[in-house]
């Protein structure tokens, strides 16, 4: 029998034995050694099994970010150690030598097992971590150690190497890195009102960062603008008065390298050291540097006025200046507490109103730098005090968020916040799905990507808010009640509170929470660092740790109108939280009662109603229509063009950057042609896509990305391609393996011919893209249709060769849209609106190209004389009922309508009822553009407002409609012109281009051609807005916009009369006004002027210099006078009507030309009036009033010496408006000749001088071809 609890063993003969000493020693040793061996084997087998579980669970949780805690290897190792120890204890006996052997063997086996399993684990982790790092899913990985072994040192080397490579692209400027500053390096300093807090100052940084970004874009490549970071402190909300409070570096709180990825920045102390280190006479701590310009920004003393406008003006200071002038004629002030070590050469108060970029023109055109650094430590710098005066240039826009994303916090603060989350809130980035990578330019998160930690984050502001906003600050009891409500609703138990409340108040809140929802005191946390940590991170660091913890919460609740809460909400947007979990705030006590009352009233008074299906469809329609194309609202992959392509099995995507519609048309045609090769293609507007996903496109087998990009203005991208263009130019992009091709659209008469297409093609190659076809360049000054067809032929040859494709000749339908039968509800039918349904009946701002304003025409008059065979009209559009603002030099876009006679003629030729309501729906369900124009609508509406009937159709249209000609000769002609044979090109040029045949003329001349009108509507290009330079000044005409336009009206070679679409509308309005004897609207006149025009404003860089004293030289023959009329009006306004004494205005010189004084001299009386007022110096060239023709270019040559003096010595600005092909080119050449002749320059230097004028925006062009 065995005793209870004693070891019991069975012998080989079946007998029991209880006392081991009764068994022979050698037999006993044999048995025990086998037992020990088995135990060792079993223990290590168990270790291996647990290691396998470790790999499985950890990697599963890592890849899917499930809420699974990571097991640690040391847990398994110590378990193994315990098992081995048990094995050793079991084997204890008197044979010590044998015991030592067993112990030694067990230790060796244990050590080898531990090392092998650890190596396996870490190799696996290394592979996984490296993969995640490559995919930018992990922020940083610190090496781990087990018993002192650096297990992930290899990965550390890899990570460091990558970081070093990335840092090479940084623009950070320090004392050492900026030791050699070029003469074209400029520094911008700024300060904020001393009473403003930490968080608003961070907001002002974003404004100034965007100012620097704009300056760097607008200035020449050799100009280097750097932002100097103002030292922090002392701030009102920093209560730890025993800690350092002034001259604190930004690096205490922010990652300077991250800031530098957006713009180059330098700490103020480094800036000061940089320019004092060269002074040998005194130490850097006492050396003095001089800032040439200091401006205190202030509001206009008279307020904003009735209408908002951007403006700047040097004025007397509204308040007592903080800068005083001393006997040495320098200004001294606060300068961040550096006292006399910083001084200013010039100080003025600058009244400012508008966006921060209003300072750009001021800096470029008005700041000059004298080179006297040998005399004193003068830095090419300018300082703006009270920088909070000006507004964000694009609040919430692309560059706003780039600046905000660059404001990563200092690593030590992030580490403190993360440690607190782990220790108290069970929160890690991996589990919470809030992992960030170091380089913010290489990542983009979307809403709902972040899950957040299992706690609620709350910002409870109390101290000053209790008095400042008593109605919006909840009592502690009501705050606890709201906490309990959200904890219950979200099924959470932990709360973190960032607050300025003292500990007693927090304890009171905890007590209320415990009474209301039994929340214990250790479930409501605040961050209270000890004295040592607080000395290190300071009050500002504590605030950031608070914000960082709140930003990672599952749900956040802020305080009313608190910038502290705003910064947290911005962080959560960057991390990728759902907006519903971010934009919430604590309600004041009275607000809670009000909400309860409203809910009660609604509950008792509500009447259940069922929405009609038509009402639902109407609501959806009103929100989904966008400039003629209905967005797929509610689509599962909205914005994700790659997901849509995968879903619909598309291999090719065609992006277009279009201002007038040509590039979009080419993109649609390429996509159609792709069907013939068995390729399904998507056509996308880059503005509507997340272009970060280009990197994902390579996952699609045999993928292809095509870019049809127009160059607009002075080498700029079109509006819809602007964001993609800027994204592509940023550092850190990777498009390795992307198969692509680019076709650019431009005009050779412009200096920056096809600049956008060239840059995109070059840049994608630099980023690792694979060019499928050489860059195509279309010239709108020549035959852009021919250029496109020639390139498309080569493009498809290359694609067929690369992907082994053959053309499909089975006659597959090329229709992109299908006709949807009616009937349609009357209130769902478009009647000419450009965007939102019924937008012309219910006009709502803001007004733009997608929502134009239907402006009344209040005045029309003929500007040419009665005996002139041509016509030029002056129109005035009333905007008094809107908030539309414009500046002299801006453009007005007008949506025209086709001539009613032309529309009716189409109906007659095709024998169609034009009043039939139709709808065309894209056959591709995943297409971004659902309709070719706003649908449903009548044929008449489509032909009148949406389709271009006057332009000459392209070859693709001819090719498509050829099948509908019943006469073989007609079909042969159309097929030939639609082909790309040499004979076809010649025939197309002669029969279409040279003869100016529109689609209506083709239908008339080929009577057998009867295409279905719905197919023709699909093929015809959209009718786009026409742009006109505004010929008025908002200072003189704030409630109206003036247009000056020559009426286009000529006879074609086929004896037809061709009319300009928009100018024909103008002429019809003028004729109607004449017919009713009411050509001009007068005050109190009851005569109703018929006619309205859909308009919107397009900004332009063609604008007056900021300083009124700057001379201007205007060159504008013909209607090129239009913007200069506004310029002259504005200068006259400031000289004679602003204040009793007016303002000094620089020379205003106009070179104007026309054919005859007696026929087409525009605004003669006005110009003569301005001359008499000594506002204008006028030079006119009448080209046909004498035998030898004289043009404005002749006058420029004659006045070369004077012009050179104005440009070189007086810093005059030059403006050219008119014909780009001849006049503008000639003027450019003449200016180079003048610089060469009177400036004693070589031709190369003269050309460089004129180019520099362009880059400094002292030479501007508003031209057309």
TrEMBL record:
Positions with a binding annotation for FMN: 658-663, 710-713, 745-754, 780
One annotated GO biological process: response to hormone
EC number assigned by the record: 1.6.2.4
Membrane topology classification: Multi-pass membrane protein; Single-pass membrane protein
InterPro entries membership: CysJ-like_FAD-binding (IPR003097), FAD-bd_FR_type (IPR017927), Flavdoxin-like (IPR001094), Flavodoxin/NO_synth (IPR008254), Flavoprot_Pyr_Nucl_cyt_Rdtase (IPR001709), Flavoprotein-like_sf (IPR029039), FNR_nucleotide-bd (IPR039261), GDP-Fuc_O-FucTrfase (IPR019378)
Occurrences of domain FAD-binding FR-type (ranges): 850-1105
Regions that span the bilayer: 39-61, 73-90, 102-123
Signal peptide: none
Swiss-Prot/TrEMBL keywords: Carbohydrate metabolism, Disulfide bond, Endoplasmic reticulum, FAD, Flavoprotein, FMN, Fucose metabolism, Glycoprotein, Glycosyltransferase, Golgi apparatus, Membrane, NADP, Oxidoreductase, Signal, Transferase, Transmembrane, Transmembrane helix
Swiss-Prot/TrEMBL cofactor(s): FMN; FAD
Pathway: Protein modification; protein glycosylation
Highest taxon above the source species: Eukaryota
Flavodoxin-like domain residues: 652-796
Reaction(s) catalysed by this chain's protein: L-threonyl-[protein] + GDP-beta-L-fucose = 3-O-(alpha-L-fucosyl)-L-threonyl-[protein] + GDP + H(+); 2 oxidized [cytochrome P450] + NADPH = 2 reduced [cytochrome P450] + NADP(+) + H(+); L-seryl-[protein] + GDP-beta-L-fucose = 3-O-(alpha-L-fucosyl)-L-seryl-[protein] + GDP + H(+)
Alphabetical list of Gene3D superfamilies matching this protein: 3.40.50.11340, 3.40.50.11350, 3.40.50.360, NADPH-cytochrome p450 Reductase, Chain A, domain 3, Nucleotide-binding domain of ferredoxin-NADP reductase (FNR) module, Translation factors
UniProt binding sites for NADP(+): 870, 1119, 1183-1184, 1189-1193, 1226
Pfam families registered for this protein in UniProt: FAD_binding_1, Flavodoxin_1, Jagunal, NAD_binding_1, O-FucT
GO MF annotation, one: NADPH-hemoprotein reductase activity
Cofactor note text: Binds 1 FMN per monomer.
Subcellular location: Endoplasmic reticulum membrane; Golgi apparatus
Family indicated by similarity: Belongs to the glycosyltransferase 68 family.
Protein name: NADPH--cytochrome P450 reductase
